[in-house]
């Protein structure tokens, strides 16, 4: 009996056990589930085509343990990177009975976000769940093409993804290493010629990045184009810095990828591009690639539209942190910028350090002796 009481006491302290009653929970596991809710109106930056898709999300949560589990849940919007990342919605606590389950749908997500009117037609981001015990979290996503006001949605697609747990707090790599997330992208339209690498259709990519940490993360992103094997490889764009606060998220879509390539002077004159967006950070992030394809098909007398939806969490890779160098920028004034790429040494990126000098051994900008 004493042994059972001791186990119950340990479970209660950990947030697992009977009679939760809204007590504080010590989270050990985190889950970041992507959400897509509403009508997406997308304008392809390469072809100018416009499509509308209706998307829904249902996140199913199951407690596989034999005890009550108290979880915390909240929603975080992922806005375009040109907009200020919003703060997450309020945290809502929920008790899950032993072997119990529940669902978070788009209506629940809107409530979690606590949005003021007018609510956008399309919402995207992450539902973040923290739990003291491992639970089962599965995202169910649907998409269908909207043709016009009189034509019902067609080309239904369903995607089911198991959300992997991460330990809390998120791991921070050693100082000489970086977490990198190479994320595939496919953007633009293909008409179906013999040289096209994929089936004809319009391809959309949206890469969502979430900072699950309790601190601000200074991350970097770059684009690497993938051309045919017998072509001269494209040079990558330089890394572009971005600041993401605690529990904030942002999105990189096809228009952002085109802008990065155009700014770097390496955007080819084509209607379809593919490659990788590489995100690097000194701390763990949630990075998810969302891919949608719509293909026109002739089906019977009325025709039809095929729609495909895929959601892929990106696995991090640890790479050696670059050794910084010093730069001379602008009109000859001494500026220092921590980078390994001299091409990045341009006036608007350099950091002015009055009277600073470059340490030739470390490459860092330091105060004069």
Topology as H/E string?
A: HEEEEEHEEEEEEEEEHEEEEEEEE
N- to C-terminal distance: 70 Å
Query: Treating each run of at least 4 consecutive H or I residues as one helix, how many helices?
Result: 3
Quickly give the structural class.
mainly beta
Uncertain segments are: 1-14, 298-304, 325-338, 342-355, 359-366
**Rg value:** 24 Å
Number of extended strands: 22
Number of domains: 2
Average pLDDT value?
A: 80
Helix content: under 10%
Shape annotation:
globular
Main β-sheet description: 18 strands, mixed
Topology:
Layout: H1 2-14, E1 29-43, E2 50-62, E3 69-80, E4 92-96, E5 101-105, H2 106-113, E6 122-131, E7 136-146, E8 154-162, E9 166-167, E10 177-190, E11 201-210, E12 217-225, E13 240-244, E14 249-253, H3 254-263, E15 272-281, E16 286-297, E17 304-313, E18 317-320, E19 335-336, E20 351-352, E21 357-358, E22 365-366
Parallel strand pairs: 3-14
Antiparallel strand pairs: 1-2, 1-6, 1-9, 2-5, 2-7, 3-4, 3-6, 7-8, 10-11, 10-15, 10-18, 11-14, 11-16, 12-13, 12-15, 16-17, 19-20, 21-22
């Amino acid at each position: 009996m004493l042994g059972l009481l001791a186990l119950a006491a340990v479970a209660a302290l950990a947030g697992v056990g009977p009679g939760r009653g809204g007590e504080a929970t010590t989270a050990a596991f985190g889950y970041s589930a992507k959400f897509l809710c509403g009508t997406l109106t997308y304008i392809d930056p390469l072809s100018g085509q416009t499509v509308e898709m209706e998307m829904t999300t249902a996140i199913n949560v199951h407690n596989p343990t034999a005890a009550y589990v108290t979880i915390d849940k909240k929603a975080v919007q992922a806005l375009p990177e040109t907009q200020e990342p919003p703060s997450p919605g309020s945290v809502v606590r929920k008790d899950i009975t032993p072997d119990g389950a529940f669902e978070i749908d788009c209506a629940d997500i809107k409530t979690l976000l606590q949005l003021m009117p007018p609510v956008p037609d399309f919402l995207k981001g992450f539902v973040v769940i923290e739990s003291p015990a491992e639970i089962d979290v599965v995202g169910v996503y649907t998409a269908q093409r909207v043709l016009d006001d009189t034509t019902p949605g067609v080309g239904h697609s369903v995607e089911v993804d198991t959300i992997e747990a991460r330990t809390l707090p998120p791991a921070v790599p050693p100082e000489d290493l970086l977490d990198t997330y190479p994320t595939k992208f496919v953007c633009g339209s293909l008409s179906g010629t013999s040289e096209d690498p994929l089936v004809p259709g319009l391809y959309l990519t949206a890469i969502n990045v979430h900072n699950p940490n309790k601190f601000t993360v200074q991350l970097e992103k770059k684009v690497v184009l993938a051309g045919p094997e017998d072509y001269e490889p494209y040079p990558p764009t330089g890394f572009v810095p971005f600041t993401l606060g605690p529990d904030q998220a942002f999105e990189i879509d096809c228009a952002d990828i085109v802008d990065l390539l155009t700014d770097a002077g390496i955007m080819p004159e084509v209607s379809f591009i593919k490659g990788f967006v590489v995100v690097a950070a000194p701390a763990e992030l949630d990075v998810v690639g969302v891919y949608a394809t719509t293909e026109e098909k002739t089906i019977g007398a009325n025709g039809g539209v095929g729609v495909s939806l895929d959601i892929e969490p990106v696995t991090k890779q640890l790479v050696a942190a670059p050794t910084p160098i010093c730069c001379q920028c602008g009109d000859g004034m001494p500026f220092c910028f921590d980078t390994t790429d001299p091409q990045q040494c341009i006036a608007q990126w350099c950091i002015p350090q009055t009277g600073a000098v470059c340490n030739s051994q470390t490459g860092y900008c330091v105060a004069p002796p």
